[in-house]
């Protein structure tokens, strides 16, 4: 459902939903320590709230086993977390974050060795989109929403389908997804998300200046993006993961009914159940060979 | 003119002013040969008709000498002067014949596959599609006319396009006119006592549709008892009698001639049909017919056909017609539509076709008459039911089957877990020697430390911030010039238009070639082998063309163009590699068969 134009609001009122990566396995091996990261982020959130009186910020923590809302600037519950050393907003966020981590740890179960330790990005993306939908339906007067993902964990290929679904629904509701990747490799999911929805993707070179990156690139509201130049990635990694093994592939088989991608020839599509025909001598069979080349 | 060649004495002139070299002109279907009488002169001419584009000649009545001017492709012309105009005429006719034939031949695309019989309609469809879509036409010209692909192969993948074109062409059947053309007014000839009725096939069809009694009479009388002409004469005599409003005379003639009587009576078929329809009507719903339709027997009904308001005796009732009956009948027939789609010229065929159709209809209605009454009763009871007193009426529905989405996602999870062991080579793996507890613990520690000490002071060091800002600004301004502001803006739009079109055309032609190439594997027949060879040659020719494009572009765009061209290269390379590998395998397998036939 597209948002109704909110003419009574100024053009630059924004609602930023921040997806914070709290995957402990990533943070224990990252060059940037979690507390430094939090300082950068908290200062940045404060700055967003000062840009415009009507701006709103929502923070969702992307954990290893679960996701949850940890901060909502429009709620009144922040009063109870008074702490002399920092603004009220920060202390309430930290408190909630701590509680979330405790809960998350309790949910952890014994994992087989060798599994990729990725966070539940698809879950937090879906929660963000649900929150934004609620804002859309709250009336004609609402800020322009966008999503900012601060991710460091690697992509979990088993989440490919869920993440792509979320990306397409964000595209449909015109919600840009900005992403800032803090890890060492490249994240194909984040690049695709920003490319498809019209957001900004950036991988900071110098993590000590993370606050400066956030302020320069990600604090820009949607209206100003029409005349402020933001960094563009040189190319997007469009490779998909196959549906059977979750490997990243660039040449594979596609079911012509539901467009699911497979790396090997199958008798039957596992998504829609359609049976693939026999290959005839000259004409192509039901699943064509398709080549996806990464755009550079 | 049955000759396959023409030989005449003529003079050959290169221009109009040239006096001309006398000699013999010999024309066959393939070429024109002119040999001068004097072997030493230089005017010998041997031209094939393929190169002749057109012809001009001087008119007979003018004062000019008889010249024939043949123009060729390169805009040169050959002028021949004949001895007299009849010679010119002959040659002109011959040339015209050859040119017409030649025109035909060049338009028909080369059908190399002799098994395919194309109907004229099919050819027309193809030509129309080619004319409408210039991209398709370019591809067609490039591949089919140069022999890389045959017609059949080219169109084999485009069946959907052809079908769509064909379905657009299904003719709409014209309905009947609403004017009552079956009501023919004769034209009278003032001089003689004849009246002339004009009868066209369209009118015949209408008469048969509107007057089933006449139709029945036609089927039974023609050609057994009388010819068609006699039949129509009698019919129009009846019409004339009606028009004279002389029902007494009509009765008298009807008594004499029984065939005529058929035309003069009321149409009993219509009456019985109306009665049948009334029986079939479902009073709850269907107003197909009602009591009022069977009005033909009612007395004093309506305006009489020829406008007379006289009351006449009932014995002549039979021979009167009323205007409303005819108009209603005509309207009913027009609304039914054109029931038969037969060539109108053959009256007998039309009559038979209509008869067959009415027979089918009446038999369909007739055989269900027994069941229909029961069915009607059923429907009546259903329509008039009282809902409160009925039991629950559950309609048969297919049960809704919503698959649990967790099934799908869980199965994917299981797959991922099972095979993630092998997939880790590419993907980054976090080397984590610590246990879960330790890891969570360290995270919580960070949070407590920040709670205790507050945010980092300063959040970011000024030098670092400055560095970051500089680097960002530089990279943004660089990429803006190289790639463009909008991440979704395409590189293609920044190239000059001609280059862009060429690149896109190359891409579609490469796709076409690759489609046919990959579809031909595995090679099982010689036809496929030959085809694959042709395709491979065409593909190798594309490489130099791509290089040319790259060279023609200004240097700052060259890198972009080479990036765009790279996937084309890759696709072609993959195809050619496959080809060479299969060739090697083939030659390794069949040592004693060098031509590669398996």
From TrEMBL, chain A:
<keyword id="KW-0479">Metal-binding</keyword>
<keyword id="KW-0227">DNA damage</keyword>
<dbReference type="GO" id="GO:0006355">
    <property type="term" value="P:regulation of DNA-templated transcription"/>
</dbReference>
<keyword id="KW-0862">Zinc</keyword>
<dbReference type="GO" id="GO:0006289">
    <property type="term" value="P:nucleotide-excision repair"/>
</dbReference>
<dbReference type="GO" id="GO:0000439">
    <property type="term" value="C:transcription factor TFIIH core complex"/>
</dbReference>
<dbReference type="Pfam" id="PF03850">
    <property type="entry name" value="Tfb4"/>
</dbReference>
<keyword id="KW-0805">Transcription regulation</keyword>
<comment type="function">
    <text>Component of the general transcription and DNA repair factor IIH (TFIIH) core complex, which is involved in general and transcription-coupled nucleotide excision repair (NER) of damaged DNA and, when complexed to CAK, in RNA transcription by RNA polymerase II. In NER, TFIIH acts by opening DNA around the lesion to allow the excision of the damaged oligonucleotide and its replacement by a new DNA fragment. In transcription, TFIIH has an essential role in transcription initiation.</text>
</comment>
<dbReference type="GO" id="GO:0005675">
    <property type="term" value="C:transcription factor TFIIH holo complex"/>
</dbReference>
<protein>
    <recommendedName>
        <fullName>General transcription and DNA repair factor IIH subunit TFB4</fullName>
    </recommendedName>
</protein>
<comment type="subunit">
    <text>Component of the 7-subunit TFIIH core complex composed of XPB, XPD, TFB1/GTF2H1, GTF2H2/P44, TFB4/GTF2H3, TFB2/GTF2H4 and TFB5/GTF2H5, which is active in NER. The core complex associates with the 3-subunit CDK-activating kinase (CAK) module composed of CYCH1/cyclin H1, CDKD and MAT1/At4g30820 to form the 10-subunit holoenzyme (holo-TFIIH) active in transcription.</text>
</comment>
<keyword id="KW-0863">Zinc-finger</keyword>
<keyword id="KW-0234">DNA repair</keyword>
<dbReference type="InterPro" id="IPR004600">
    <property type="entry name" value="TFIIH_Tfb4/GTF2H3"/>
</dbReference>
<dbReference type="InterPro" id="IPR036465">
    <property type="entry name" value="vWFA_dom_sf"/>
</dbReference>
<dbReference type="GO" id="GO:0008270">
    <property type="term" value="F:zinc ion binding"/>
</dbReference>
<keyword id="KW-0539">Nucleus</keyword>
<keyword id="KW-0804">Transcription</keyword>
<comment type="similarity">
    <text>Belongs to the TFB4 family.</text>
</comment>
Automatic annotation (TrEMBL), chain B:
<protein>
    <submittedName>
        <fullName>General transcription and DNA repair factor IIH subunit TFB1-1</fullName>
    </submittedName>
</protein>
<dbReference type="InterPro" id="IPR005607">
    <property type="entry name" value="BSD_dom"/>
</dbReference>
<feature type="domain" description="BSD">
    <location>
        <begin position="112"/>
        <end position="166"/>
    </location>
</feature>
<dbReference type="InterPro" id="IPR035925">
    <property type="entry name" value="BSD_dom_sf"/>
</dbReference>
<feature type="domain" description="BSD">
    <location>
        <begin position="191"/>
        <end position="243"/>
    </location>
</feature>
<dbReference type="InterPro" id="IPR027079">
    <property type="entry name" value="Tfb1/GTF2H1"/>
</dbReference>
<dbReference type="Pfam" id="PF03909">
    <property type="entry name" value="BSD"/>
</dbReference>
């Amino acid at each position: 459902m597209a948002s109704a134009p909110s003419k009574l609001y100024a053009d630059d009122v924004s609602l930023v939903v921040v997806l914070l990566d709290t995957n402990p396995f990533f943070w224990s091996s990252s060059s940037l320590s979690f507390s430094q990261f939090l300082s950068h982020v908290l200062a940045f959130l404060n700055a967003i709230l000062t840009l415009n009186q009507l701006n709103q910020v929502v923070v969702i923590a992307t954990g290893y086993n679960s996701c949850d809302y940890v901060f909502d600037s429009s709620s009144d519950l922040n009063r109870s977390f008074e702490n002399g050393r920092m603004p009220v907003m920060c202390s309430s966020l930290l408190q909630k974050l701590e509680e979330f981590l405790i809960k998350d740890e309790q949910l952890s179960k014994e994992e087989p060795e060798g599994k990729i330790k990725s966070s539940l990005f698809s879950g937090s993306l879906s929660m963000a989109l649900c929150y934004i939908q609620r804002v859309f339906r709250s009336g004609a007067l609402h800020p322009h929403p966008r999503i900012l993902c601060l991710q460091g964990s690697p992509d979990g290929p088993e989440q490919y389908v869920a993440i792509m679904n979320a990306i397409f629904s964000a595209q449909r509701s015109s919600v840009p997804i900005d992403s800032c990747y803090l890890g060492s490799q490249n994240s194909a999911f984040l690049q695709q998300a920003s490319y498809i929805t019209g957001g900004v993707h950036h991988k900071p070179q110098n993590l000590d200046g993370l606050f400066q990156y956030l302020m320069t690139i990600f604090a820009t509201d949607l209206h100003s993006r029409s005349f402020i130049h933001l960094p563009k990635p040189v190319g997007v990694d469009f490779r998909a993961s196959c549906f059977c093994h979750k490997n990243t592939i660039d040449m594979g088989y596609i079911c012509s009914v539901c467009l699911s991608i497979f790396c090997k020839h199958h008798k039957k599509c596992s998504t829609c159940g359609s049976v693939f025909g026999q290959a005839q001598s000259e004409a192509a069979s039901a699943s064509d060979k398709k080549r996806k080349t990464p755009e550079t | 003119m049955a000759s396959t060649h023409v030989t005449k004495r003529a003079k050959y002139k290169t221009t109009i002013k040239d006096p001309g070299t006398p000699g013999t002109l010999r024309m066959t279907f393939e070429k024109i040969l002119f040999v001068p009488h004097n072997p030493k002169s230089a005017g010998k001419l041997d031209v094939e008709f393929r190169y002749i584009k057109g012809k001009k000649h001087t008119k007979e009545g003018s004062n000019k000498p008889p010249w024939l001017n043949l123009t060729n492709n390169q805009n040169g012309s050959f002028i021949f002067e004949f001895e007299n105009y009849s010679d010119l005429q002959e040659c002109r006719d011959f040339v015209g014949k050859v040119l017409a034939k030649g025109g035909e031949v060049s338009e028909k695309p080369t059908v190399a596959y002799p098994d395919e019989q194309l109907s004229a309609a099919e050819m027309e469809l193809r030509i129309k599609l080619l004319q409408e879509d210039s991209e398709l036409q370019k591809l067609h010209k490039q591949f089919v006319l140069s022999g890389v692909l045959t017609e059949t192969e080219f169109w084999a993948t485009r069946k959907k396009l052809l079908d769509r074109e064909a379905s657009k062409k299904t003719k709409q059947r014209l309905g009947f006119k609403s004017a009552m053309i079956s009501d023919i007014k004769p034209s009278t000839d003032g001089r003689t006592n004849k009246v002339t009725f004009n009868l066209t096939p369209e009118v015949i069809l209408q008469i048969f549709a509107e007057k089933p009694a006449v139709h029945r009479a036609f089927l039974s009388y023609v050609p057994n008892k009388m010819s068609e002409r006699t039949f129509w004469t009698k019919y129009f005599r009846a019409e004339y009698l009606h028009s004279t409003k002389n029902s007494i005379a009509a009765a008298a003639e009807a008594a004499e001639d029984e065939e005529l009587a058929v035309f003069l009576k009321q149409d009993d078929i219509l009456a019985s049909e109306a009665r049948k329809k009334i029986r079939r009507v479902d009073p709850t719903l269907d107003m197909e017919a009602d009591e009022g339709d069977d009005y033909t027997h009612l007395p004093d009904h309506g305006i009489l056909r020829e406008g007379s308001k006289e009351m006449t005796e009932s014995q002549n009732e039979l021979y009167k017609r009323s205007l409303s009956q005819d108009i209603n009948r005509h309207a009913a027939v027009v609304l039914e539509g054109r029931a038969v789609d037969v060539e109108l010229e053959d009256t007998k065929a039309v009559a038979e076709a209509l008869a067959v159709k009415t027979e089918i209809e009446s038999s369909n209605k007739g055989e269900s008459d027994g069941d229909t009454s029961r069915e009607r009763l059923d429907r009546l009871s259903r329509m008039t039911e009282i809902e409160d007193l009925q039991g629950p009426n559950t309609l048969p529905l297919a049960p809704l089957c919503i698959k649990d989405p967790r099934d799908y996602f869980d199965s994917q999870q299981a797959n991922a877990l099972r095979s993630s062991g092998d997939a880790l080579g590419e993907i980054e793996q976090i080397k984590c020697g610590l246990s879960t507890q330790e890891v969570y613990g360290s995270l919580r520690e960070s949070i407590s430390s920040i709670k205790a000490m507050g945010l980092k002071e300063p959040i970011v060091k000024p030098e670092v911030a400055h560095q970051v800002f500089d680097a960002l600004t530089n990279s943004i301004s660089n990429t803006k010039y190289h790639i463009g502001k909008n991440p979704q803006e395409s590189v293609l739009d920044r190239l000059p238009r001609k280059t862009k079109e060429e690149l896109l055309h190359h891409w579609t032609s490469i796709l076409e070639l690759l489609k046919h190439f990959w579809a031909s594997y595995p090679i099982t027949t010689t036809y496929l082998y030959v085809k694959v060879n042709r395709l491979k040659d065409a593909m190798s020719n594309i490489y130099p063309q791509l290089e040319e494009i790259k060279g023609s572009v200004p240097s700052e765009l060259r890198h972009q163009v080479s990036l765009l061209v790279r996937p084309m290269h890759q696709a072609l390379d993959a195809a050619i590699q496959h080809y060479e590998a299969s060739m090697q395998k083939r030659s390794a397998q069949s040592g004693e068969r060098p031509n590669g036939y398996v």
